[in-house]
Amino acid sequence: MEAQGISVKTPWYSSYEGVREHLEYPDYSVYSLLEESAKKHAKLTSYDYFGTTVTYKEFLVQIEEAARAFLTLGVKAGDIVSICMPNTPEALISFYALSKIGAVANMIHPLSGENEIKYYLNLTESEVMVCIDLALSKICHIMADTKLKQVIQVSVADSMPITMSVGYHVTKGRKIKIEKCEIALKWSEFIKSGRHYEKDTFREGGPDETAVILYSGGTSGFPKGIELTNRNFNALAIQSFEACHTLKEGDRVLSIMPVFHGFGLGICIHTVQYFGGNAIILPQFDASSFDKLLTKNRPNIIAGVPSLFEAMMKNKRMQGVDLSFLHCVISGGDSLSQSLKEKVDAFLKEHGADVQVREGYGLTECVTGSCMIPSHKYKPGSIGIPYPDTYYKIINPETLEELPYGEDGEIVISGPTVMKGYLKEESETAETLRVHADGLTWLHTGDLGCMDEEGFIYFKQRIKKMIITSGYNVYPQYVENVIDQMPEVLLSCVIGIDHELKGQVAKAFIVLKDGVEETPELRRAIRDHCEKNLARYSWPYEYEFRKELPKTLVGKVAFQELINEEKAKAAAREADNA
Questions:
Q1: How many CA atoms lie within 13 A of 569 on its CB side?
Q2: Measured between alpha carbons, how far is 521 from 530 in angstroms, rounded to an integer?
Q3: Which pLDDT score is estimated for 383?
Q4: Which of 16, 179, 207, 471 stands 20 to 30 A from 575 (CA)?
Q5: What is the mean pLDDT of residues 126-152?
């Protein structure tokens, strides 16, 4: 590939089989890509929610109804509307409706703490929010400190079949305590409000306009709003379809990765809608009933994090289950160890599936996956080869010099899915997106890896001190800041420790101020503080109090020593159990 007269190495092209090196990308919005697909696949099922199926033609009607309602509320092109939802039809409808009117979807994890939600709302200056009823009480507590004017309240039962909806309200629904909120409007009332809107709802968004905001830690470890454009999302869908090259219209996809995650929204929803697939969506995944989920829905494609496949293999009721309906299994969001891949492959074969799990690699700053194991060739330890039109280099992070094949350095990426930047964070953006001597803008991943002579990428470890738990990013510095807010705490250090199902979880080491004694009440107070101010997946799994923490020669907390201690403890426990 030539970039402004300077060559960029692409050794992976020799490993493309049935995959084109270069693709064409439309200059229009996320909604327009869906609409184009919907016209081709009008009678096919777009999504399936607890057995309620909606065709592509019907989906467009639902999106139009929501678009009218958003415009009736006063939402304009360029406005940022927050979506704080699990995987429900209303979340999908809102996402595409906002794109149709030229607005931006700000995706928030519904289990985020109150202060986190307040931060996301204020960063984006959102005046309208689509919110699951389970999170409404948190919104009520913080709305006075935001610009919120309207909250659209959704229940997971709103789109369920009637009998299931009644059953939900009788059992789980009645346990939900919803605080009265004067700015809340139920989804049905919201849709009804737009029925008299008579103007045209469509406003075409340009390829470089922001379509979605997702969250990541950036280089400082604090949550950053990642601006992803129409081109970013559309290119991801087109590239993913091409790279998989086994997908076809009508395929049933188990879309259980959450829509507030790049993997969930970009792959499990937008890519599926692009090629005319059927997205099987659920608001919550229950590992204990994974066998029923598979046998009932018989998906052709599963895309999930490594812990999902661990849960599948540990489910005792999976014994004897026929999985021959699977023809594509993708793992992403976290590293898939070679040993786990081999176990998953063997499990799939034992259950009649003529397929192997294909690991992908990516990060939210390029929506999600940008590299994947090809279907016909696997190299142990590799995360695969880059997508079409996506370029990888391994560089010395200090000099930006490209390193020889086989040598470890920072993984950097260039291509049409690379983010626009971090919202209102110019210095962070400049640090992460850099123009190199080859004239291309490169995304600095902060990940250590190497490339072999055939262009296969090998991920080694995260340069940044970040924890990946069930595919979600946990930023230790952010958790530490929350803990350090407690008046009794002198300092804290948070590291990742191994967990059988989640891959890793956070552990907090805490030093109390002089004269403060560790008591059960104080432990409970710190835990309560974390649970109020952090997303559930960020909660420390363990708390350990110490008189002091190990330090480096320059006085910094030696978190690597703590990591090594935990690894030694784990090894000792394993030896004792052997």
A1: 8
A2: 14
A3: 94
A4: 471
A5: 96
Summarize pLDDT for 496-549 with one digit per residue, the tens: 999 988 889 999 999 998 889 999 999 999 999 999 999 999 999 999 999 988
Instruction: Report the distance separating Cα 461 and Cα 469, nearest Å.
Output: 15
- For strands 357-362 and 328-331, give the pairing: parallel
506 DSSP 8-state letter:
E
> Domain segments of the chain: what residues?
469-577
H or E element at residue 449: strand 441-451
- Contact by Cβ (8 Å): 88, 506: no
Integer Cα distance of 227 and 502 in angstroms: 28
Confirm if 341 and 357 have CB atoms less than 8 A apart.
yes
| Plot region of 421 (φ>0 → left; ψ -120 to 50 → alpha; else → beta) | left
67 SS3 class? helix
Q: What is the pTM of this model?
A: 0.85
- Give the per-residue pLDDT at 529: 95
Strand, helix or coil for residue 568: helix
Type of residue numbered 473: N
Nearest of 426, 356, 363, 416 to residue 389 by alpha carbon: 416
List the end-to-end C-alpha distance of the chain, in Å, as a whole number: 53
Return d(Cα 478, Cα 474) in angstroms, integer: 8
As given in the structure block, the two tokens for residue 186 are 């139920």
Q: Using DSSP, how many helices (H) and how many strands (E) does the chain show?
A: 17, 29
Determine the pLDDT at residue 53: 97
Q: Sorting pLDDT into bands at 50, 70 and 90, what band is 478? A: confident
**DSSP code per residue over 306-317:** HHHHHHHHH-GG
Q: Encoding tokens for residue 351? A: 């259950």
* CATH superfamily label, 469-577: ANL, C-terminal domain (3.30.300.30)
CA trace torsion 172, 178, 184, 188 (10° rounding): 20
Closest CA to 426 of 118, 121, 205, 219: 219
Burial class (CB in 10 A: 0-12, 13-18, 19+), 400: middle
Q: What is the 3-state secondary structure (H, E, C) of 432-443?
A: HEEECCCCCEEE
- Do residues 370 and 417 make contact, with C-beta atoms less than 8 angstroms apart? yes
* Cβ atoms 371, 392 nearer than 8 A: yes
Give the pair of three-digit tokens for residue 124: 């984006």
Alpha carbon distances (Å) from 477 to 305, 310, 412, 468, 470: 24, 29, 24, 14, 19
How far is the C-alpha of 5 from the C-alpha of 59, rounded, in Å? 46
pLDDT 10s digits, 31-57: 999 999 999 999 999 999 999 999 999
Using CB atoms within 10 A of its CB, is residue 284 exposed (0-12), middle (13-18) or buried (19+)?
A: exposed
Q: What are phi and psi of 236, to 5 degrees?
A: -60, -45
229-262 confidence digits (pLDDT tens): 999 999 999 999 999 988 999 999 999 999 999 9
DSSP 252: E
User: What are the C-alpha distances in Å from 549 to residues 34, 87, 406, 524, 527?
Assistant: 53, 41, 37, 22, 20
Mean pLDDT of 196-204: 95
